[in-house]
Design goal:
Layout lengths: L1 E3 L8 E2 L2 E2 L6 E6 L6 H17 L4 E7 L5 E2 L5 E3 L2 E2 L8 E4 L10 H10 L5 E4 L3 H7 L7 E2 L6 H7 L4 E2 L5 E4 L2 E4 L4 H14 L1 H11 L14 H4 L6 H12 L7 H7 L4 H12 L3 H19 L4 H7 L5 H12 L3 H8 L6
Length: 340
């Protein structure tokens, strides 16, 4: 199966329409064998959608070392537009991840080492961060990657400050993102930065994704960090906790909802989800409060109540313990300026 991304002639043309003059921003996507296909197509769809919304703003090109087709880790064959040696100087240089980053071609690392510093915006998706690190482009910078490879990235590249929690990290002109779909989140954030919220919202709606998952949002939500229970009563309790963080979520109350004794419920919940009911509830409440601090205008007292903390002091202690910042400080640091 073959797939074609971009316009192989690199004429100022995209999406079937002619653009007068040179596009404002060239997005160059690096390809290699065993690349993760969604790391490529996710961001490309975002930038292509933005180009359709505002013609003349993005020019997308894909390139492999020698210009030959590459086979992705899922077996999809992608035909690049050109060879890296003939690629135009991009505004945004995007490096995807995948199995091919584990034993990367030294020529690719060398090309990134030479050309990466020249890009006004350098972006990686998933384990693409490993290629940037190998080229020395992340030294002294804060970065992230897929949660399963954060320890390896930190071990192999001690000069990189690896943050395993967020879905993407911006450090100056370098942006790194976590696994696969987080590349879409990062690309949407870049489109919003370039073209404004309306353009990004239009693209997000077309792709049926959220416009903004904040970069600081954890790679693991409570639902992802814990396993999904096998038995239906326990799965229903997990869903109930997520939908009602302000309710009575004591072991006794949850056990009654599952029609189990408190002792049996607690043991079964931990056995099937890998965490205790209390820890699961704590994480759900923390996530709920974080979202409200980021997205709503509610005060800390109101957020603490509806998130199940009861008092602002209880929520403050939970935030300091988990995040190292008070709710007020968290809001100052992470709430979008346009929402303040």
């Amino acid at each position: 199966m073959a797939g074609k991304v971009g316009d192989s002639s690199l004429r100022p043309r995209l999406g079937g329409r002619r653009i007068d003059g040179m596009p404002q921003r060239t997005v160059l996507v690096v390809l290699f064998d065993d690349v993760q296909s969604l790391d490529v197509t996710g961001p490309v769809e975002v930038f292509a959608g933005a180009e359709k919304h505002t013609p003349g703003t993005y020019r997308i090109a894909t390139a492999s070392l020698d210009g030959a087709p590459v086979r992705t880790s899922s077996g999809l064959t992608v035909v690049p537009d050109l060879a890296l040696t003939g690629a135009p100087a991009p505004h945004t240089l995007l490096v995807p991840g995948g199995q091919g980053t584990r034993n990367a071609d030294p020529r690719l690392v060398g090309w990134l080492r030479e050309h990466g510093p020249r890009a006004p915006r350098l972006v990686s998706v998933c384990t693409g961060a490993a290629l940037l690190a190998a080229a020395g482009l992340l030294d002294g910078r804060r970065a992230t990657t897929h949660w399963a490879y954060c320890d390896r990235l930190a071990r192999d590249h001690p000069a990189v400050e690896v943050d395993p929690d967020p879905i993407y990290v911006r450090d100056g002109h370098v942006a790194t993102s976590a696994g696969v779909t987080s590349g879409i989140d990062l690309a949407l954030a870049l489109v919003e930065e370039d073209l404004g919220r309306d353009a990004a919202l239009t693209v997000a709606r077309h792709l049926v994704v959220f416009l903004r998952r904040p970069g600081n949002q954890a790679q693991f939500s409570a639902q992802l960090a814990a396993q999904t229970a096998r038995r239906e009563p326990l799965r229903e309790v997990q869903q109930w906790i997520t939908e009602h963080p302000g309710a009575d979520l004591s072991v006794e109350s949850l056990a009654a909802r599952a029609a189990l004794s408190p002792r049996h419920f607690a043991r079964a919940f931990q056995a099937e989800t890998g965490t205790t009911p209390g820890r699961y509830v704590d994480r759900v409440r923390l996530e709920h409060a974080r979202r409200l601090l980021e997205d709503s205008g509610d005060g800390v007292e109101e957020i603490s109540r509806i998130s199940g903390y009861g008092t602002p002091e209880a929520m403050r202690r939970a935030f300091v313990r988990a995040l190292g910042a008070s709710p007020a400080e968290y809001r100052r640091r992470f709430r979008p300026a346009t929402a303040r």
